[in-house]
Amino acid sequence: MVMGIVNVTDDSFYDGGKYINTGAAVEHALRLVDEGADVIDIGGCSSRPGSKFLPPEEEAARVAPVISELAKRGLNVPISIDTVWSSVAGAAIDAGARWINDISAGRIDPKMPATAAANPQCVTVLTHSRGTPHTMQENPKYADVTNEVVMELAESVNVFLRAGVNRDKIVVDPGFGFAKDTGHNLTLLRELDKVVSMGYPLLAGLSRKSFIGAITNRPVEDRLPGTLAATSAAYRRGAKIFRVHDVKETVDFLKALAAVIRP
Q: Where are the alpha helices (DSSP H) in the chain?
């Protein structure tokens, strides 16, 4: 599956400001669906390194009108809400969202597990991270990054299961770029099968991230080839969902890769 990113933000690291207007965001989402997106992920607050959270009310005011308008258009793919706040998730679900994508896996808002459980129709994506986007890249340290990611994700999953979320509605995300340096990200990518072995569908968010820039020495606008290389590695190790800015290119790439590897 390919998850298309719609940032209703003014400061996202790649396309901040392009879709802050509701109409522009809706048209971009529709374009991504036409390009082959299986899910549309809408976020109203940047999670780039160094960014700060918005008040939940402001975040909800950005995303709810976009989701509502897409729902009115009869979008034929699910809409995901990218947020750490249960109140924003609730407003988005009321507007028509059917996925919750929480980069904190419930660490920031302890009400998020109950919100997910109260909406059993929703898929919930739980991402590994530490700290907040504002602090997460301040000298991240691991003794064994992959095993620690697996253990911490398992703890988060258990919190949501105990809250009543159905096991088959959980997706895990190892959190590339979240509290991880280039070496951590590369090790995690090489050992991604260990995260897959948790038994949940795995979402990989690799699109144009800074570790790809560190490898290629390319600015964010020139990181698509590096992103696709990383996507190939993740696919070969069992990733099932890819969260991307470049839907058309990723869909074609995965079709060709799948045809070659799994005829």
A: 22-34, 56-72, 86-95, 112-117, 145-163, 182-190, 192-196, 210-216, 224-236, 247-261
- Active-site residue, from 98, 107, 208, 209: 209
Q: What angle do the packed helices 86-95 and 56-72 form, to 10 degrees?
A: 20
- Catalytic status, residue 209: yes
Q: Name the band, by pLDDT with cuts 50, 70 and 90, for residue 14.
A: very low
Residue 169 is a catalytic residue: no
The size of the chain, in residues, is 263
Q: Which of 236, 243, 248, 255 is catalytic?
A: 243
- What predicted TM-score, i.e. pTM, was given to this entire model? 0.92
> CATH number, domain at 126?
3.20.20.20
Domain count, the chain: 1
d(CA 190, CA 196): 12
Judged by phi (left if over 0) then psi (alpha if -120 to 50, else beta), residue 255 lies in: alpha
Instruction: Name the band, by pLDDT with cuts 50, 70 and 90, for residue 51.
Output: low
Residue 149 lies in domain: 2-261
Work out the pLDDT band at 82, boundaries 50, 70, 90.
very high
- 241-250: average pLDDT: 97
Tens digit of each residue's pLDDT (9 = 90 or more) over 55-78 = 899 999 999 999 999 999 888 999
- For residue 190, give both structure tokens: 């090489």
